[in-house]
């Protein structure tokens, strides 16, 4: 039971970070659109996977940034590379999820 408490504490901590909160707000917007457009069960599953993927990667990115900042406060090209790749993973997953979302919305509005 303590592991769940720690996990929920970590989720709350993550939501206190601006970048994770922004992704969470986008997820809420996507859920509202899905309700309005009456997504099918399969579309809801795809939406859930996309949102879960993006938010999870954003949380991991935030952790990587915090660990890098903890390891060194000096400018280091290796740390910059680590942070850049981590941010790139967020950008990539968010971009793919956005494309999937656009396709699903266009399917409902006749585009």
TrEMBL record:
| Membrane topology label | Multi-pass membrane protein
Listed under GO cellular component are: plasma membrane
Which InterPro entries does the UniProt record give?
A: DAGK, DAGK_sf, UDPK
Chief subcellular location equals membrane
Compartments, record wording: Cell membrane
Q: Could you give the cofactor binding note from the entry?
A: Mn(2+), Zn(2+), Cd(2+) and Co(2+) support activity to lesser extents.
Q: Which GO terms describe its biological process?
A: phospholipid biosynthetic process
Q: Which CDD domains match?
A: UDPK_IM_like
Q: Where does a divalent metal cation bind?
A: 65
Please provide, alphabetically and separated by semicolons, the GO molecular function terms listed in this UniProt record.
ATP binding; kinase activity; metal ion binding
Q: Where does substrate bind?
A: 58
Positions with a binding annotation for ATP: 65, 83-84
Q: Where is the active site?
A: 58
Task: Write down what this protein is called.
Answer: Diacylglycerol kinase (ATP)
């Amino acid at each position: 039971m303590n592991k769940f408490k720690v996990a929920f504490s970590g989720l709350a901590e993550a939501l206190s970070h601006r970048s994770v909160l922004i992704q969470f707000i986008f997820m809420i917007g996507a859920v509202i659109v899905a309700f309005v457009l009456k997504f099918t069960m399969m579309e809801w599953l795809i939406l859930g996977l996309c949102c879960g993927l993006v938010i999870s990667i954003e949380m991991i990115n935030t952790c990587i940034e915090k660990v890098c900042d903890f390891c060194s406060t000096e400018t280091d090209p290796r740390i910059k590379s680590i942070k850049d790749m981590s941010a790139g993973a967020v950008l990539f997953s968010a971009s793919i999820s956005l494309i999937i979302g656009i396709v699903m919305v266009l399917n409902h509005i006749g585009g």
